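## tool: complex_structure
## caller: assistant
## args:
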Amino acid sequence: MRLPLLVIRNQSRMTDLATIAPVQADSATARGPLLELRGICKTFPGVRALDNVSFPIWAGEIHMLCGENGAGKSSLMKVLCGAYVADEGELYNHGEKIEIKSTLDARQFGIAVIFQEFSLVPYLSVAQNIYLGREFPGKIPGTIDRQKIRSEAQRVLGMIGSDIDIDAPVHTLGVAQQQIVEIAKALSQNARILVMDEPTSALSDTETEHLFGMMRRLKAAGVAIVYISHRMAEVFLLGDRITILRDGKMVATVLPNETTPSDLVQKMVGRKVDAIHRRGDNIKPGAVALDVKGLTGPSGISDINLNVRAGEIVGLCGLVGSGRTEVARAIFGADRITAGEVTFFGKRFSGGPDEATRMGVALIPESRKSQGLALIRSVGDNIVVSSLDKLFPSHIFHPGKAAKVAQAMIKKLRIATPSPRRAVQVLSGGNQQKVVIGKWLAAEAKLFIFDEPTRGIDVGAKAEIFALMYDLVENGAAILMISSELSEIVNVCDRAYVMREGIIAGELSRERLNEENILQLGMHHE
Amino acid sequence: MSQVEAVAPKFKLTLSRDVTDVAYRLLAVAIICVVLSIASDAFLTANNLLNVLRQASLVFFMASGLTLVILTGKIDLSIGATVGLSACVAATVIKSTGSPWLGAGAAIGIGAIVGLGNGLMVTKLRIPSFIATYGMLWVVQGATYYYMSGQSVYGFPAGFRALGSGYLLGIPIPVYLMVAFLIIGYFFTKRTTWGQQIYATGANTVAARLSGIPVNSRLNLVFILSGAMAGLASLIYLARLNSAEGDIGETLTLPTIAAVVIGGTSLFGGVGSLFGTFIGGLILTLILNGMNLVNMNANWQPLVTGVIVLLAVWLDMKTRSKTDG
Amino acid sequence: MAQGMATLGRVPGVAFVLVALFAIFAAMSPGFSTAPNLSNILVQSSILLLLALPMTFIIMTEGLDLSIGAVLTLGSVVLASVAVSTGSLTIAFIAAVAIGLAFGLLNGWLIAWIDIPPFVTTLGTLGIAQGLCLVITDGTSIVGMPPSLHFFYSGTVLGIPFPLILAAVAYAVMHGILYHTRFGTYVPALGGNREALRHAGINDRRVLAIVYGIGGLMAGIGALLLTSRISSAHPTAAIGMEFDAIAAVAVGGTQFERGEGWLLGTLLGVVTIGVLRNGLNLLAMPSSIQVICVGLLVIVALFFDGVRKAHDS
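## result:
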């Protein structure tokens, strides 16, 4: 259903800025922006992913998109590429309204997206992947021209200066090479607008240099590039303009020479800082609850050393892909390890998640829907799932007792559900997260590993979850918390470890724990 | 307002899906009974109804273990073949030793071993269950043929035959057994922690593992139970037929799966019940019985069973996508 | 070329088994390595190849077709009954192909659009096809085929048995489809990364349905060879042949996950199964032993896959 467009554009300073044509004026400028977003809204159950986002994209500009995780960048990207259809809002090309209702529409208009999660087929070759869905017809009707696909793929890869073997099946490539194939795929579409989501996160210096050079050439040729990045250096090096998103809303569009990195961070973080009640200073760490020594595993982490004491909240941060989640999973016994040891409460641990659970350890995973909850089961069933052996040592299950435990947890955590028998999938994100936490409270866990506990939940629920965490540590629990939102780490944690490329890059004590220091340690060679 | 947390869940007064599912199926049973009693005078006779129950009990035994496997989101295609091998081995053991108990032990033991093999292929080697159990189907089938080498074994002690064809207080003995296993099964699935863990594993295997459930040992358990129940079913089958041949289990897999899916157990795991499977088996048996009563050729049975399976899954998928949407 | 290397790297597995079996049977049975017997193995394998080729496609999509043996049988039954009633082999053949295609597309529709898991879908259609066979034939054989039917299994063209020619053409066509058409490019993508196909704007459901359609079509064509071979149609003639087809694909190195598949491997797999069955036959082993051996061969192949997967992750 399409609602009438209520707000077309805010009459604010930022809008004025946003309508300034980029420096690289060309003939197209006169006709207006290549693509203009007006009042784009997208709502998912429980969360407003995009809220009235409006900004223009001009031909021949590199438009930086900044924001914390969950600010709405990925949703915006998916609207641009036609994977999502906006609930409200319109798109204009040179002042004329256009519709993007499918990926095909987006492609025909000339929008190509490089996703972070790859859209490559493992057992097809590099060349076949680059031209997937756009194979050149061969001489015999119905066939494809494999030679032309190969030579064109070679040409496109040459443009980026890559020497990847075009005949190699993609599954034999490393992550960085797969990223290059993604970029080549997008480039081969002769896109007018290229959307890139942190394309350099897995690239080496040389590859990054090649990519930047190529972007400049594309820009000169009039291609618009929408570039999502967490790296300040890139933002200021490449950006012609910078649009900042926060909580699904557009905060501002600014020019790089009129802003500073700290100003930008301020805009990205915004008033959220106030939403987090900073933890008091009277921390009395107790016995060591978690001790990790030399943990190394095939998931790409090596020589991880860290510890968490009872009564402490310890942060684990670093860029996306730096190995934080892998560390959490390895500690919990969910992934294989090749070296190192994990000790819980002074006892050596070597088992699977079931053993970790028995030892009083809890993992609140990154993706609650796919890893934390059985969505089709009830709130009550989900709450007692980890404590079945504890509640019913004789293995005889009493639904009444389980319901009582669930009811108590619903009350304690103020989970908004009409009944414990309600399927968990109808709850909002924040309440779902509370169910996951309730599961571990019922299991009487003493060490909690939170992986992005506030992802995709609203400000109010976030505050509640932090209050809960404070309550836990005050009662002697230990917490290891992974978060991409630096403000959370800084405000909530007593100290933090920063990861970079699978290793611990450093530890920050409470005194040195601030966003600059985290970024300093977490950035690649910058 | 920044976040729309309040996409309020609709507070509709609805019965839980379990209840409505069973209600619909009982309604289907009633409708089929009405139709059949109109179509054939022979339907509403005590003899025929008891016969239907006896047949349904046989289907139930085979399908009950499979229900557990499907509840975890896996499948066991080797059920029919396992029934065949267990029946043949039990038959020769009873023949040579004269002891039904040894035969029963052999049947259930063989079933459990086959189940363990299936479980290990799925949990240790991470072979998808549909292909692991399909390979097992042929190995077991081949072993049965080899073991019997074209012979048939028949003529068992009366005490053993009573298991399949005897009556107690006018009701077939297998029906008592079925009721007993329905109660045990209900207790196991709904009133033990293992049952809860089986449902949780099927609803989301990854989440179950990360919630501390020993997923692999639960999967091994359901495959072993599935095999053991196939072994038990083979005994009743054997007692009823009073003879065993190599091809005894060949055509049993499809009706067994049919009973489970008609009973409302989701092929994607986590949803369903043993009581549903009992009703599913009853519906299937009633339909096949009705075809028999109106003198339809038995050759139509696999065709009708196939159509029913597909219709049942289709209906299930349709209602599911409605409630999910 | 890396792709060439990767596929070459797979050759030893199945080829080794084939050579070993060949050596064993040649040593144990004097009749084995004679020209007529070897030719016989190839001719016997040609029907299996017709099923195993599309089965390779299907398994590459992370699917399975349990109905293909029953559909082949149904095709044969339809072919025979139409031939008897009309006297025209052409019409009979068209009818067989049509019924095969219809079943394949039914499978495809149920799997691609209704989202019913492949093993249940095809188990259901297996029941339907088998039931139709019984209903049409009333459980007996259909005899009285036109004499010209004999040619398709036993005849030769330029000294080459006709089934071999048909099998070679089928292999060439399927090879061409898999490696030289758009459609073929999308087949491994269905198993490997269906999302990528949607991103590329391809109707993945249609591709998937056509894959199963090809399976039915090939079973319909195979019905010609099967009927010609036994000069009649029997309602259980090819029941269970789907297992040999799946076995040949698995032994040939196609994976049941992620869309890795290899058509030449399937060809070798088919010959391996053919050699195994023929050799055991010559050694007077009952068919039960043959079934067990094929089953064990599959489990061993899957075992090595599983070990490799466990090693990879």
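## assistant note: The interface with chain C takes residues 81, 83, 102-104, 107, 115, 119-125, 128-129, 132-135, 138, 142-144, 146, 165, 167-169, 171-172, 298, 336 of chain A (CB under 8 Å). Residues 205-220 of chain A form the longest helix (16 residues). Handing back to user.
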